[in-house]
Amino acid sequence: YRRETTAQSMSPANAATAAELARPYLKENAQVLDPFCGTGTLLIERMNVLHADPVYAVDKFAEAVEKAKINTERAGKIVHYINRDFFDFTHDYLFDEIFTEVPHTDAEAGPAFARRFFEKAATLLKEEARVTVVTDDPGSYASAAGGTAGFRKLAEIELNERLKNFVMIFEFSR
User: Fold this and answer.
1) What is the b/e burial string over 12-35, where b = at least 16 CB atoms within 10 angstroms of the residue's CB?
2) Nearest to residue 39, comparing CAs of 79, 15, 4?
3) Partners of 131 in the β-ladder
4) What global pTM score does this model have?
5) Beta-bridge partners for 170
6) Fewer CB in 10 Å around end: N or C, the chain?
């Protein structure tokens, strides 16, 4: 299904592995948001693991969103794509789940970005929602979640030793 990529695109193998690792924490028929969707690979693999509906995806890079639409159509999935910065995104209803690979940041910017991510996520999530994050900076996300009201880390699983990527799962309660 994946014909369109950008330099930052996650490999389908890593995306499928991340979704499978997160499977025990996912909700069937969840309303899902991917706030940094890129070309849609991780979100498509999440939908392959367990049914979700409706599914929304946001990215501020228009080229990635257009490529994600093509990949998603080829995969036979339905996703509502929005070309917007996550931090400016609003929605009429709350989500059961956020499922995303967060952008790579340097050591200085990482903790601040992670804090902003959880603060914004809290405005978009239902009670007992789950947040799955693929990141190469697990320390910043664990610390930011612990410092943001309502978030609790459920799991931290190494995804790819060479890339130093982790799948982290958090629960949100108001």
Assistant:
1) bebbbbbbebbeebbeeebbbbbb
2) 4
3) 98, 170
4) 0.93
5) 131, 153
6) C
- Count of alpha carbons within 13 Å of 12, Cβ hemisphere only? 11
What b-and-e string marks burial along 97-129, b requiring 16 or more CB atoms within 10 Å of the CB?
A: bbbbbbbebeeeebbebbbebbebbbebbbeeb
User: How are beta strands 125-135 and 165-172 bridged, if at all?
Assistant: antiparallel
Tokens of 85: 């910065």
Name the amino acid, one letter, at 122.
A
pLDDT tens track for 104-156:
877 778 899 999 999 999 999 999 999 999 999 999 999 999 999 999 999 99
- The C-alpha atoms of residue 68 and residue 126 are separated, in whole angstroms, by 26
Sequence-distant (≥ 6) Cβ neighbours of residue 67 within 8 angstroms: 4, 5, 6, 39, 40
Burial of 155 (0-12, 13-18, 19+ CB in 10 A): middle
Which tokens in the block code for residue 28?
Answer: 């069937």
pLDDT digits (tens, 9 = 90+) for 82-93: 999 999 999 999
Amino acid letter, residue 147: G
135 CB neighbour count, 10 Å cutoff:
25
